[in-house]
Amino acid sequence: MKIIKQQLKFLLLVLVVFGCTKEDDNTDFVNQIEPPTNISVDVTVTQDNTGLVTLRPSGEGVTGYVIDFGDGSEVSELIGPGEDISHTYQEGVYDVVVTANGLTDETTSITQEVVVSFQAPQNLVVEITNDPALSKTVNVTANAEFATFFEVDFGEVPGADPVSANIGETISYTFEEAGVYTITVEALGAAIETTTYTEDFEVTAILQPLASAPAPPAREEGDVISIFSSAYNNVPGTDYFPDWGQAGQGSGWAMFDLGGDEMLQYVNLSYQGIALAEGTTVDVSQMEYLHLDVWTAEAVTDIETSLINNASGTVTEAPATRSLTANNWTSIDIPISEYTDQGLTVSEIFQLKFVGTPWAAGTVFIDNIYFWKTPTAPSPLVGTWVLAPEAGALGVGPAVGDTGWWSCDAVCVADRACQYDDEFVFGSDGSFTNNLGSETWVEGWQGGSEACGTPVAPYDGNAVATYVHNQAAGTVTINGTGAYIGLPKANNEGELPNVAVPESITYDVTFINENTISVVIESGAGVFWQYKLVRSGAPSPIVGTWVLAPEAGALAVGPALGDTSWWSCDAACVGDRACQYDDQFVFGPDGSFSNVLGADTWVEGWQGGSDACGAPVAPYDGSASATYTFDESAGTITINGTGAYIGIPKANNEGELPNVAVPSTIIYNVSMENSTTMNVHIESGAGVFWQYKLVKI
Predict the structure, then answer these.
(1) 338 phi, psi to nearest 5 deg
(2) Nearest Cα to Cα of residue 364 among 414, 299, 413, 316
(3) Top-ranked range on mean pLDDT: pick from 240-249, 292-301, 532-541
(4) Of 180, 252, 255, 680, which has the most beta carbons under 10 Å away?
(5) What is the pTM of this model?
């Protein structure tokens, strides 16, 4: 088997060398291929008292499987993907071990219990439920003694083959239509006899959204005219349900409340309208788009949105139609030019109209109706950026988020230090500059040796260039021959030297936070170069002084992240612990960390206190000489220094004091809610999650 895997690895290398012209002819990525994942095995057994069991393994990234049958017999030969193997067992319970081989020497193993009994399955327990998130989808789970697997006939298609799964697992099935169906579950084992359960079950459709529409971005007041949205100031006095005779078309309307989030609900949509207050119009000629979010179950396939203008008493209108995705929010941005190109004047809009297709056949929910334009404020790109000096910040793969073809690891980052200090400078005047210094990474197609060297024209930083940042589209266009982001060779037409040197390159850009961006370019069909850039000289977002948020729930513990059912400091507790809620956690720009506790803090019994305010107790008295490391990509803060901590002193990675030794290092998990709020948690022992909410002061 070792020989087979090495042959597969060699074949992959050959395919890479002769069938691909990606980055640097570098085959290091072969050794970075992930081991097999999502390994499982379907188990079936013949119902003839022979103990004959069939095992069909499956998984991702697998070249073959080896099975240890768990009964002391020899392991199987190599089984190919999609194949199965049969084995005869005596009565008993066996732990079958399935080992999946990958393209490299990496393997993944799972253990599956197999029950072989010549008794009929007993104590069959079946659970049938409607899926809470998927419309007309039913989940079935079955457990029984002496059973190996179970089969389900969902009763929708007469004569259809039943669906099977291992006992204890869940089968999901989506029906074409809602209604009552007779669902039959049969538990099977090695015995000839089986056990059956039947239930008439009502399958339900989800007819309303379960989640709110995507939150609109923050916009300056002059960049948006809002008709209906909680994110902006709406045009006052607007009537969202004017009576235009729609009731005669079978239509109705209501304000739908989803956990406090209100949205418009139009029932059996034929046509419905929105009317601004009497005598009110809005001029949208300086806006670029009309936005709306629409949710529908299934019946409405398209929505027509018309703008209605009333210029000097003459009413005119123009429509625009968009398709809808069933059981999901469809976010729609209609260019205002689509209306003006039809001859519509948009300087005095006083009504909007919605028409459903098919006519009066289904319900829609609409939220976030507003006109908007590209922000007039300076681009948030203004400043100097560099590649993030971390593994994975530079890579290429077949899809966004996939850098499986090649990714610059930690060793590569060090080797390419001359590239990771290259600066990409976005000026507030729209200028763009590559500052490369005396050295950068020079590739073979540039006449270099895949090493640091003198920059080569036209990619030597001398380009006179500009940029256009389209925040709405999430793109930045660099104009100027020789100007680029990330790597010189990747552009919209392909990769140099296989294409002409471009005069302009457009990248997709996404802000991870104000000082971190993700940049992607598809350089040829299905070739996605991906860069992570950080703002040069930007301080860590955690630098500053933080305290526990003075609110209920900011200090808590529970059995899982987000679950604080064991104990949570409520409003009364916050008042009682004022001496703790003013404790400061200070992260210095130089990597220093301090606990500033003042004259008193909360002292617990294990510290010799009485679970009340008192003088700080060493080593948790703020005297620790400590440092911190913030790994933004991993979402962790490491505090180094005996007696230094975040939140409460007793919780650390090994458990809770005094049951464990006082640690010299503690690692916390952290997520930034915004620039002044972060959520911190630590698992102090298996399944014990202390959770803190901190605010910057």
Answers:
(1) -65, -30
(2) 299
(3) 292-301
(4) 680
(5) 0.41
